[in-house]
Amino acid sequence: MEIKSYLKEQRLLVEAAFDSYIPAATGDFAKHIEAMRYSLLAGGKRVRPILCIAAARAVGGNTIDDQNILPVACALECIHTYSLIHDDLPAMDNDALRRGKATNHVLYGEAGAILAGDGLLTWAFDLLCNPSHGNLDSEKKLAISHCIAHAAGSFGMVGGQALDIASENTRFPFETLQTIHRSKTGALITASVVSGAIAAGADREQSEALKQYGHQIGLAFQIVDDLLNATATTEQLGKAAGSDIELGKATYPAYFGIEETRKRALNAIEKAKTCLKDFDDKAQPLRLLADYIYTRSH
Amino acid sequence: MEIKSYLKEQRLLVEAAFDSYIPAATGDFAKHIEAMRYSLLAGGKRVRPILCIAAARAVGGNTIDDQNILPVACALECIHTYSLIHDDLPAMDNDALRRGKATNHVLYGEAGAILAGDGLLTWAFDLLCNPSHGNLDSEKKLAISHCIAHAAGSFGMVGGQALDIASENTRFPFETLQTIHRSKTGALITASVVSGAIAAGADREQSEALKQYGHQIGLAFQIVDDLLNATATTEQLGKAAGSDIELGKATYPAYFGIEETRKRALNAIEKAKTCLKDFDDKAQPLRLLADYIYTRSH
């Protein structure tokens, strides 16, 4: 299996699912929904949805029905996209560029962008809790929704972003940086993997292994993001490079330098793959995804 | 039954439940959770939670376990509070005062307030989808979560707020005002009633009657809000009076004048009570709540 073609194929699967699971920009709320769709469809690697699908297939292989996993995958991308829209706001990171395109508030105004974010976050739960989508039993749907809500909220992504903003231009211990990374980025990545596992009916051992895999790749993902922000150009990133330094944000490279940071990313990737030791070939995409996260750092 | 003592008793019940269902401001995310709690605990009539509880008891009376309905009631108040925090932001209505107190962004900054809102919205679904709270079956919890997500989102509250903001200082037909009211305010009020009905295991006829009751009191509630904004003082409101005119917002009084607007509110209240004609004395609080909404206009 070649990771690039796998990623492209899965990305196209997720993007095709948006047609089924994301409202069209018509009717009374057309302009608002257009703002939501603009950011959702503005590209991106679709890492979280792909992790969710890959985790489900690592457990259940081809017995997993797309209709059961794609609404979850789309909901994860809605939540990720909303977080980017709100993070980019003038009151937060004040970014004008994202994935090489104008950020939401540049096009739709601050109020429009705040509401586009609110709309995407709420739509995620509309999707996850919709009894009409797929045929997972209610208990599983509820467990998935709870797992994602907890990871996306005040003890996960939102709390991490609050801590990140509050920590700008302050000196703080490395433990605080770990807390920020684990909550702001790691929690939703872990939930992406775990929600796929729940959908596939993973047993307790499989779930725990996939959760630990999620923790490790979440950590690696954030370390690599820090590295890219420090070393890549704005053109390569599609967003402002070096913005972490400008905003006075603590990062892995600021603590450890570039080389040691790379080693730590690689270490997390190796640990992630070790978590999959009891899985068979159906988990191969998860192994390749782990490697892929590290290769982004070069 | 006296409505004022009923409302006070129910309000205290809901506020006591916050201790069980809303996180304490401790730990890594203390400051962020403090911002969430500040607005949640800043007072308010707790109309949505009380409607939810009253609707459940209209169906099931005292057989309804508090443990099953209070998490839903608290989640509704979290969603309502988040919408106020985001509506008050400088990019939206730019209000410095709410319930006689400083608005969230005045105290916690714009970024802090955006994240406090995001946190409360997400916490609502964490609560609603938590398998550990109460003993409602998963199917009911999922139906309640979906009902509330749909009402709070892009086809309900968020969409209505987007339309409201977009319509400032423009002339638009009365139908658009109705759409704004129905979505921005009416949808979550209706969902409050319907979610109570679902929790209590209402049959199809009861659910439909309670839904129509919700529509009518939602309409009345918004008309009365328009009236109060036009006629009450800032001191009476605890927020800036006359702000609708200042922001160039269309309102019922702007279309119909004060007296005709009052008549329309009263008409909606009468229709709401008619929806309850097949309910027994257990629905008495819902009838009194309808009357109470109208008396706020004087």
UniProtKB/TrEMBL annotation, chains A, B:
Give a GO cellular-component term: cytoplasm
Give GO terms for biological process: terpenoid biosynthetic process
Q: A Pfam family name for this chain?
A: polyprenyl_synt
Cofactor field: Mg(2+)
User: EC top class, in one word?
Assistant: transferase
**What are the entry keywords?**
Isoprene biosynthesis, Magnesium, Metal-binding, Transferase
Write down the Gene3D superfamilies for this protein, in alphabetical order.
Farnesyl Diphosphate Synthase
Domain of life according to the entry = Bacteria
Q: Does the keyword Magnesium apply?
A: yes
> Which GO molecular-function terms appear in the entry?
(2E,6E)-farnesyl diphosphate synthase activity; metal ion binding
Q: Which InterPro entries match?
A: Isoprenoid_synthase_dom_sf, Polyprenyl_synt, Polyprenyl_synt_CS, Prenyl_diphosphate_synthase
Assigned EC number? 2.5.1.10
Family, similarity comment: Belongs to the FPP/GGPP synthase family.
User: What NCBIfam families does the record tag this protein with?
Assistant: FPPsyn (NF045485)
What protein am I looking at?
A: Geranylgeranyl pyrophosphate synthase
Species this chain originates from: Desulfocapsa sulfexigens (strain DSM 10523 / SB164P1)
